[in-house]
From TrEMBL:
One of its GO terms (biological process) is carbohydrate metabolic process. The active site is at D173 (proton donor), Y268 (proton acceptor). The keyword Mitochondrion does not apply. Gene3D superfamilies: Lactate dehydrogenase/glycoside hydrolase, family 4, C-terminal (3.90.110.10), NAD(P)-binding Rossmann-like Domain (3.40.50.720). Mn(2+) binds at C172, H202. Its cofactor is NAD(+). The record marks E111 as: Increases basicity of active site Tyr. This is 6-phospho-alpha-glucosidase. Binds 1 NAD(+) per subunit. Residues 197-419 form the Glycosyl hydrolase family 4 C-terminal domain.
Amino acid sequence: MKKSPFILAIAGGGSTYTPGIVKSLMVRLADFPLAEIRLYDIDSQRQQIIAPVVEKVIRDHSDSIKFTVTSDAEVAFSQANFVFAQMRVGQYKMREQDEKIPLRHGVVGQETCGPGGLAYGLRTILPMVELIDLVERYADNNAWIVNYSNPAAIVAEGVRRLRPQARVLNICDMPVAAMRNIAAILGVDRHQVTVDYFGLNHFGWFTHLYVDGVDRLAEVREHVARFGLLTEDAAATDPQHADPSWVKTWRNIKPIMDHFPDFLPNPYLQYYLMPNQIVEHQDPDYTRANEVMDGREKKLFAAAAEYQQTGILPDAFHVGVHGAFIVDVACSLAFDLRQRHLVIVENRGAIANLPYDAMVEVPAYITAQGPEPVRMGNVPQFHRALLEQQLASEQLLVEATMEGSYEKALQAFTLNRTVPTMQHAKAILDEMIAANQDYWPALKQAFKDGQPQS
């Protein structure tokens, strides 16, 4: 039976990830046919630089797919069947602040974890809600938004609170990147690995790693004890996750498993379980944001300029798990494939001893009606306590956004495991308020110096 082609909009079309996502779509046209791809970005100048590269990728595979580049929401979303969302509010100049402000106070500086992730969340929740409203106004009634926007856990919680009926599936490629490395270690294809996993986004653990029905966690555990979550020659990592900072991240799984060997941790747990060591090895003047701007960003923009001048597109972007995963998920949504993927969903008993309404990351079968989570049962007390603390921090941050509450923002920062004291939390929060004045909702103090504010 012939599949009807879809209209797809990519919100955040100016992202340097866009060409890789589109290349992933092009090699899967038989599985996910497309009538039109629309790039949408409020930064039209940046999008216009990326767009010719994207069009070249499309035309190398198809002459029939319509290609539209716009900053008009109605043009972008009218009758769209799918929207891929990958917004970065404040772009890399604000990511740099997210990372460097905490480091000035001796606290982890990271894009999605710790104070940086909380700051990024305060910038992103309300724009994500605005995007949902635009899609619901203009798109097909059955359209799905597949959201890649970080920080995924906070964005997902904000959407749950503010737009509970929205057809949004929140995903993250970090567990899938880990599965790619696991598969390389085991000498199999990533799609041959079936995992059990529980947690929140960027805060979880693999409990079983099945290949052909056999759990091979013990084998991977033994490998991690020697090399971290890398192949022996580190050749399996794709360029997206192979910069020096990423190699260090994959290797830092080893000390975590040395102490807590039962499960394989998400690599981002290093920021929460060993923050002192992380800070000691971070350069406060040159963070991951600078590494990306001087690496992937510069390389792709240079390639775009060369293509404009010569008509030849250099090999400047990589098609890795980031693009492949979002296409896998979209195919399963579109055609009710019931494929099993790790996604972010409302708990509803999937992790039995976490709150029913928590936004958790677990395996789920992706159907045309959305995800059907796999029940992971009760999790051990140690892991549950860590999850509850992180969940409370994220939920307080969402409430701070909704209520414009300085106190709840301060509570969120104080409760985060990367922040050692309330004094650190206040100093970082106050500096971040000044840096984010063009992006954050206003945070009002109900009390100042212990006295009610009038």
